[in-house]
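User: What would this chain look like folded?
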Amino acid sequence: MNKKQQKGCRVITWKQYSHKGWSAFASLGRQIRIGVLTVGTLSSVTPIQAETQSMAHQETEGDTLTLDEVQVTGTMAPLTRLQSARIVSVITRQDIEAAGVQSPNDLLKLASGVDVRQRGGFGIQTDISIDGGTFDQITLLLNGVNISNPQTGHLAADLPVSLEDIERIEILSGADSRVYGGSSFGGCINIVTRRDTLNHAGAGVEGGMYGTLQADGRLALTYGRVSNRLSGGGGRSNGGTQNSDWRRGQLYYQGDLHHEYLDLDWQFGYSRKAYGANTFYSAAYPNQFERNERFLMSVGAETKGRIHFRSSVYWVRSYDNFELVRNEQFGENFHMNDTYGLRLTSHVNWKGGTTAVGAEVRNEGVLSTNLGRPLDSTAYVRVRSEEDILYNHRDNRTNVSFNLEHNLLLEHWTLSAGLIANMNTSVDHRFRLYPGVDLAYRPASHWKLYASYSKGFRLPTFTDLYYKSPTLNGNTSLRPEVNHSIQLGTQYTRNGIHGMLRAFYNRGHNMIDWVMYHSDDTYHSTSFELDNIGLQAEVRIDLMQLCKKDIILRSLSVGYTYIHQHRRDDQIIYRSNYALEYLRHKLTATLDHKIVAQLTATWSLRWQDRMGPYQPYTTLDLKLQWTNRHWLAYVMGTNLTNRHYVDFGSVPQPGIWVLAGARFDISL
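Assistant: Here's the prediction, encoded as structure tokens.
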């Protein structure tokens, strides 16, 4: 190892990995410079396996990557992907740049284990689920901060960041309530933004079919130990189908301060959308419309040394205005929800491993014209920007949790076990325990075998409990969902070949869904006993790494997921809106190749077969990109075969959509 000093911190440079299971663990808490990071990426978004391969290439300024603590989602203490006893799928910056997608939500469609049901293009409204669950059963994190929406998971993916802001996306399958609490029932998605240390500015613009036009800009400035990044953008489109036009904008700022004894980080985000919601919530009303706004901010601090303390405080406010009939007050709803919390964690490394403890207080509240308990007329609150409309319903709940976890790392083994004690004021004032244990065995540096068990829970959303409309009826008697999640799997990474095989079983109690009991019924929120059983397989061949030279065919990857459901009750259901309309089959494939000079092409194929009144369909996307040092230009087409399909309810999806764009970046 070469050792060098950088800004007063000890920096270790790896050029050759020792192939020991505990090697990376010894580097935690230090800056690590990896000569050439040659981990693989599967399809545009498949898992990067943990094992870093032999660093045989010479280190250059352009191909180095500095990591502070190589940590991934899934545990309270910082563990690398190699050390982790679970497999964390990672969408890297390289994947994002290659993929022919328009939003972070679109990007997740290419992950074989993730179900993305979009009601419109460009991620205008997206339901994201994992392993056959529903969109309310995952935790969505932004730089580790829980931004899940207690009103409804329909709005959880209203992100203040663009693709250009994202460094990577981590996807963890299976219940992880012991770390992230109640909403991490079926999985967790953590969006990690880019943290620049060099001063630069950039901008991009793209446009194309259906009157689509988008533009964004960004600025990164570092002063001594303080780094700042500001970005913003917006766009509009006719939408490609009837009543699917949209306008949106976002603003995001993040900052970091690094000190010898303390790190500080802070972020602020704002997003706004207005869009035609053609048959979004009912086929009987095709001319729906919706407006959403979201503000979020967080501040975090972490000490350094043998004992680490991490504290963070966060606040998220969302506004939602829904029109059942566009530009009419009939069936119109207004909602404002606030979520704020304080999270404290600490971990210590000692001879027996790494022990972590934590506590969190999280408050979720809603003011609404529809959701919550009726207010006395003296407590009504005027709706923002409305003269004669008042919030006349309210609900509030507080969640208190305590976490304990221990990680034991040996040369070939990792054992991670922990639990959360949780109490929520909307249920009762009792603390309930939700444990989890993960075990991994590494017989060799390129193999990992793992098994895990976790118990998760989820509170009903305010929509599940209270929503009333001509087509929907909530249910205030709903109880929290409970999930017992078991996973077995293996992964292989060596010489440019990366593979993963995973089997899972989720045993669900009180699973919440919106259902019809007969053909003339409205949708009711109810619960039943439901199990999901599945198998996921992925393989990628990095041909350039395998051949050890730059060749025309750069990479090829395939991912497939199969899911089977089993209901353990005899309740008669005529139609399910979410839980029973799962993806039985999903196949993704990606081919990345060079055409000439700096011109490359990325092909992405996706085949899906969904349960319910849906037909299987296949989409093919292509992105052609010319890359230069300070700029790039591209043309991309989605759904090149012009396949017209429905993936949710009666909402039609657009056919072929062609866009062209350019980006540039300059140093300051």
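The chain has a mean pLDDT of 86. If you want, I can go into more detail on any region.
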